Amino acid sequence: MGFKMGIVGLPNVGKSTLFNALTKTAAAQAANFPFCTIEPNVGDVAVPDPRLDKLAAISGSKQTIPTRMSFVDIAGLVKGASKGEGLGNQFLANIRECDAIAHVVRCFEDGDVTHVEGRVDPVDDAQVIEMELMFADLESIAKRRANLVRKLKGNDKEAKLQDDLLARAQEALENDRPARSVEVSEDERKQWNMLQLLTQKPILYVCNVEEENAAKGNAYSEAVAKMAAEQGAGTVVISAKIEEEISQLDSDEAEMFLEELGLHEAGLDRLIRAGYELLQLETYFTVGPKEARAWTITKGTAAPQAAGVIHGDFERGFIRAETIAYDDFIACNGETGAKDAGKMRAEGKSYIVQDGDVMHFLFNT
Ligand SMILES: Nc1ncnc2c1ncn2[C@@H]1O[C@H](COP(=O)(O)OP(=O)(O)OP(=O)(O)O)[C@@H](O)[C@H]1O
Ligand SMILES: [Mg+2]
C-alpha cells in the first residue's frame, strides 16, 4: 500500500534535518543554504507501537516486524512556486503524489541560519506555502475543466460529476479557502479523492523549535497551534536538530538524553503516530512463534481486504478470520487463553477489522 507523507515548507526551515532524523540516514543532505535539496528523497520509517512488543513477549515470537509508512523530503517552496519560481512546479508534482502533508514551519531563532524572508514568522510562512498550493490548484482546475467541456456536451455522467466537484473546489479556492474545506457526500467521496488537489490533502503542522524549547514549545509554536486549530489541523512540536542528534544514539543513551530534555518520547515517534492518525490508518497484528507483525489498513477495512494487505491470495481465497481483540489477547495471556475464554471469534467477509485485532486468516487458493 505504502502511505506517504510529504515534508513541505519554505527553504531552510529544517525539512531535510527532520527527514534525516526520521530515516536515521544522512542520505538527504542537510546544509545551511536554501535549495540544497533537489531530488525528493523517500524514506521508509517503522511505525512505533508498544503493543507489538507485548504481543511478541506473550507469544514468544522470535522477531517483531513493525508496519511502515513513508516520508518524502521535498525541496523548499517559495512565493511564486506555482508560477515556476524557485524550483517551482516540479515540486508541486512531488506533493501531488503524497497522501498527506507534514508542513514544517520555522519556529527557531538562529542568526546563523538564513531565513528566505529575513525574519521568523511561522504563521505568515505557512500562509505563503498554502497560497502557492491554492494557486497551483486553481490552475490545474482550470485546465481540467477545459478538458471536460467536450465530454460534458456529450452528456457523460462521470464527467458531469467530476466537473461539479471541480467547480465546488474552485469556488472555495476563489474565496481563499483550501479544497479540504469543501463538504462532499459519501457518494461523492471516491471521485473527490481522485481529484488529487494539493490543498485537499490532510495537513499536519510541524513546529521546528530550538533545543531549549523542545519539550514545551515557544510563542511561535503556540501561534501555529492556534492557526492549525482554526483549520481543524493538528500540530506537532519538535526540534529537528535534537531529533537528528538523538537518532545517532543507541536506545539507552537516547532515553537518557530525552529525559534530560524533559521529553517522554522522541518527537519523531509523536510525529509518525500523528501522521498515521491523520491518514486514518489503523493496525492489526499477526502473531506466531516465528514473528509478531503489524499491518496497516485504512479505517473501516473489511476482513478480506485486510487479508489482501498480506497477500492477494488471502483476499481472493478468503474463507474466514479467527480474531482476538488486542485487550482480550493480553488479558487472557495469549491465544490459547483467549480461545479457552471464548474470546476468539470466527469472522466472515463483512467483518470490519478493528484497530489492534490479532488476526489469523483462513483461505484456499
Ligand atoms: N531546530 C533547529 N534549531 C536550529 N537550527 C536548525 C533547526 N532545525 C534545522 N536547523 C538548521 O537549519 C539549516 C537548514 O536545515 P535543512 O537543510 O534541514 O533545511 P530544508 O528545509 O531541508 O532546506 P531546503 O528547502 O533548502 O532543502 C541547517 O543548518 C540545520 O542544521
Ligand atoms: Mg532540504
UniProtKB/TrEMBL annotation:
<dbReference type="GO" id="GO:0046872">
    <property type="term" value="F:metal ion binding"/>
</dbReference>
<dbReference type="InterPro" id="IPR004396">
    <property type="entry name" value="ATPase_YchF/OLA1"/>
</dbReference>
<comment type="similarity">
    <text>Belongs to the TRAFAC class OBG-HflX-like GTPase superfamily. OBG GTPase family. YchF/OLA1 subfamily.</text>
</comment>
<dbReference type="InterPro" id="IPR027417">
    <property type="entry name" value="P-loop_NTPase"/>
</dbReference>
<dbReference type="InterPro" id="IPR012676">
    <property type="entry name" value="TGS-like"/>
</dbReference>
<dbReference type="InterPro" id="IPR004095">
    <property type="entry name" value="TGS"/>
</dbReference>
<dbReference type="InterPro" id="IPR041706">
    <property type="entry name" value="YchF_N"/>
</dbReference>
<feature type="domain" description="TGS">
    <location>
        <begin position="280"/>
        <end position="363"/>
    </location>
</feature>
<dbReference type="Pfam" id="PF01926">
    <property type="entry name" value="MMR_HSR1"/>
</dbReference>
<feature type="binding site">
    <location>
        <begin position="12"/>
        <end position="17"/>
    </location>
    <ligand>
        <name>ATP</name>
    </ligand>
</feature>
<keyword id="KW-0547">Nucleotide-binding</keyword>
<dbReference type="GO" id="GO:0005737">
    <property type="term" value="C:cytoplasm"/>
</dbReference>
<protein>
    <recommendedName>
        <fullName>Ribosome-binding ATPase YchF</fullName>
    </recommendedName>
</protein>
<dbReference type="InterPro" id="IPR013029">
    <property type="entry name" value="YchF_C"/>
</dbReference>
<keyword id="KW-0479">Metal-binding</keyword>
<dbReference type="GO" id="GO:0043023">
    <property type="term" value="F:ribosomal large subunit binding"/>
</dbReference>
<comment type="function">
    <text>ATPase that binds to both the 70S ribosome and the 50S ribosomal subunit in a nucleotide-independent manner.</text>
</comment>
<keyword id="KW-0460">Magnesium</keyword>
<dbReference type="InterPro" id="IPR023192">
    <property type="entry name" value="TGS-like_dom_sf"/>
</dbReference>
<keyword id="KW-0067">ATP-binding</keyword>
<feature type="domain" description="OBG-type G">
    <location>
        <begin position="3"/>
        <end position="258"/>
    </location>
</feature>
<dbReference type="GO" id="GO:0005525">
    <property type="term" value="F:GTP binding"/>
</dbReference>
<dbReference type="GO" id="GO:0016887">
    <property type="term" value="F:ATP hydrolysis activity"/>
</dbReference>
<dbReference type="InterPro" id="IPR006073">
    <property type="entry name" value="GTP-bd"/>
</dbReference>
<dbReference type="GO" id="GO:0005524">
    <property type="term" value="F:ATP binding"/>
</dbReference>
<dbReference type="InterPro" id="IPR031167">
    <property type="entry name" value="G_OBG"/>
</dbReference>
<dbReference type="Pfam" id="PF06071">
    <property type="entry name" value="YchF-GTPase_C"/>
</dbReference>
<dbReference type="InterPro" id="IPR012675">
    <property type="entry name" value="Beta-grasp_dom_sf"/>
</dbReference>
